[in-house]
Write a structure and sequence with these properties.
Helices cover 36% and strands 17% of the residues. It is an alpha/beta fold and 317 residues long.
């Protein structure tokens, strides 16, 4: 009895342990020194994939504008170029920057991409979000990946030391010996995000109902519809008029950790007091937590004047 209690100092008394052994909750295991110990079988954690966009989801600004500023192109000129690409409908939504990088000589240097990543303003607590999702939600494990239409060099540079490089997917290029972009090898925009997500599910042996996707803009529409259709969970972090009606939950905050709230509520089943306590245990206080439903309307006059008033009553004969 003393031997068992030494191995499991916080376990139940021996009569309880004996019953657990008899019903199979404990099982013997042979170790290298041939001694016999008892290990308690642990319930397997539910494993999820959490995939997040990058620009304006984990960051405050768009990496394309940061890159343009770095090489001396005014923001208005960069926006004109991007909108021109979008109007041609030659590329997936969100992939305009990739084609601009390929065809505009001013953007072609690989060095510029790395430096631009270091200038991106990240939302606070991305590192804590990664840690909590990996280890701190009891009964669950979330594999955190970033899937963005932006150049992968920018995103990996921005998140260096925060999220492992092999957990970051973005548009990839092939370079010349001098470091200039020669061709695009992968565009993770529009349906390209769906393809990456499906590859992750296959690699991690995860079902589609164990997928969470977080995004903010039009390039996330395809992947959110895909995740919703297959019983996954989607979160919008903006009021984008095309995305918000598609996402199952929307949350607005300047802190990256805010996306934990719908995950803990809808997937882990936590209540508000548990969530507040969890944040406080990490040294954070949820100061404001308002839930609102927003109707977005545009009201315009008709061509003919319409008098709006109470309907005329008709007396019964």
């Amino acid at each position: 009895m003393h031997w068992i209690q030494t191995i499991y100092p916080v376990c139940a008394p021996f009569p309880v342990l004996r019953n657990l052994v008899m019903n199979g909750s404990f099982y013997p295991k042979k170790v290298m020194n041939t001694s016999l110990i008892f290990e308690r079988t642990q319930p397997q954690k539910k494993r999820y994939i959490l995939a997040s966009d990058f620009d304006q989801t984990l960051s405050f600004n768009d990496s394309g504008y940061v890159l343009a500023e770095l090489i001396g192109i005014p923001g208005q000129e960069f926006e004109r170029k991007i909108q021109g690409m979008a109007k041609l409908n030659l590329v997936q939504q969100g992939g305009e920057l990739a084609y601009l990088l390929l065809h505009d000589p001013e953007f072609r240097s690989k060095v510029h991409l790395y430096v631009a990543g270091k200038r991106v303003r990240l939302k606070p607590n991305i590192d804590l979000l990664y840690e909590v999702l990996s280890n701190d939600v009891e009964g669950f494990h979330f594999d955190f990946y970033v899937i963005s239409a932006g150049p992968v060099e920018i995103i990996r540079s921005a998140l260096e030391g925060i999220i492992p490089a092999d957990h970051i997917f973005g548009t990839e290029f092939e370079y010349t010996a001098s470091g200039e972009i020669s061709r695009i090898t992968q565009v993770t925009a529009g349906y390209g995000k769906v393809a990456v997500l499906d590859q992750l599910m296959e690699r991690l042996k995860t079902g589609p109902d164990r997928v969470v996707y977080v995004g903010d803009g039009s390039s996330d529409i395809h992947v959110m519809l895909h995740v919703n259709r297959r019983d996954g969970f989607t979160i919008a972090v903006s009021e984008n008029k095309f995305l918000a009606p598609i996402a199952q939950r929307s949350i607005l905050s300047d802190n990256a950790l805010a996306v934990l709230i719908p995950i803990l509520e809808e997937i882990a089943g936590w209540d508000r007091s548990q969530i507040r306590a969890a944040f406080e245990s990490k040294g954070l206080l949820i100061q404001e937590w308002d839930k609102v439903q927003t109707d977005m309307l545009t009201i315009i006059p008709t061509s003919a004047e319409v008098e709006i008033g109470r309907p005329t009553s008709v007396a019964a004969n």
